[in-house]
Amino acid sequence: MQRMLHYLLDGTLVTIRPIEPGDKGLLAEGLRRLTPETAYKRFLSPKVRFSDAELAYLTEVDGHDHIAYVAVIDEQLVAVGRVVKTAPDTADLAIVVGDAWQGHGLGSWLARLLAAHAAIEGVTRIAGTMLADNRPALRVMKQVSSDIVYDDLSHGVREIVTRLAA
Ligand SMILES: CC(C)(COP(=O)(O)OP(=O)(O)OC[C@H]1O[C@@H](n2cnc3c(N)ncnc32)[C@H](O)[C@@H]1OP(=O)(O)O)[C@@H](O)C(=O)NCCC(=O)NCCS
User: Fold this and answer.
1) E-only strand ranges, the chain
2) What's the DSSP call for residue 164?
3) 140 lines ligand 1 (CB under 6 A)
4) Which of 9, 17, 50, 114 would staple 54 via disulfide (CB 3.0–4.6 Å)?
5) Rounded CA separation 82/91 (Å)
6) Does any ligand 1 atom lie closer than 6 A to the CB of residue 143?
7) Which residue range is the domain that position 21 belongs to?
8) Best substitution site from 106, 140, 146 to test ligand 1's pocket, by max atoms within 8 Å of Cβ?
9) Is 73 helix (H, G, I), strand (E, B) or coil?
10) 61: CATH
11) For ligand 1, atom 26, which residue shows the shortest CA distance?
């Protein structure tokens, strides 16, 4: 898929493109710039650096069972979103937007793009796992689809599954 240009709600122009193996440095730098709180919300554990194996897993994706996009502003990676199939019809959605860029519509836009791409690959159910009080993440999940087929809250973590429209 080609690069796409997207305007944030404040008018900033963002380049959105599929992640590439050559993005390992950008990804590592992107994680270093996240606040600990944002990194924790994304990974549900403290995360300060990626191992080489993690960087390979996160950037060397097949575009079918594992689809990932990056958002770039001024050559800096400002957001990453991915869907990873866990069954032929189900995929986990995970997104992180850099702290300075949160609340500008980027997470919602990435989520809808990823859901559309996943649907082309046969996915009909999108799953997400988030801290129980993470309202923006829940909103993003509901923007993908308001048809919630599973919603579980346990030990401060919420798991939600939505069904995509046919
Ligand atoms: C969750 C996250 C991806 C959302 O992306 P975003 O670009 O900040 O969110 P958007 O601007 O697209 O807004 C999405 C929704 O959250 C709401 N929202 C955004 N920031 C908010 C805040 N600080 N408090 C409450 N609601 C907020 C928006 O109003 C919007 O809801 P709406 O559709 O009802 O208007 C982003 O905040 C993030 O990276 N958080 C840390 C990592 C994380 O939590 N990832 C999700 C689990 S994998």
Assistant:
1) 4-7, 13-18, 66-73, 76-87, 90-97, 125-131, 148-154, 157-163
2) P
3) yes
4) 50
5) 9
6) yes
7) 4-163
8) 140
9) strand
10) 3.40.630.30
11) 136
The residue whose two tokens read 């189900």 is: 90
Identify which of 16, 104, 139, 142 to mutate to test ligand 1's pocket (most ligand atoms within 8 A of the CB): 139
Show pLDDT as tens, one digit a residue, over the chain (166 residues).
689 999 998 999 999 999 999 999 999 999 999 999 999 999 999 999 999 999 999 999 999 999 999 999 999 999 999 999 999 999 999 999 999 999 999 999 999 999 999 999 999 999 999 999 999 999 999 999 999 999 999 999 999 999 998 7
CA dihedral 116, 121, 125, 128 (to 10 degrees): -70
Both tokens of 51, joined, read 């191992």
- Helix spans in 60-124 (H): 106-120
Question: Which tokens sit at 89?
Answer: 């019809």
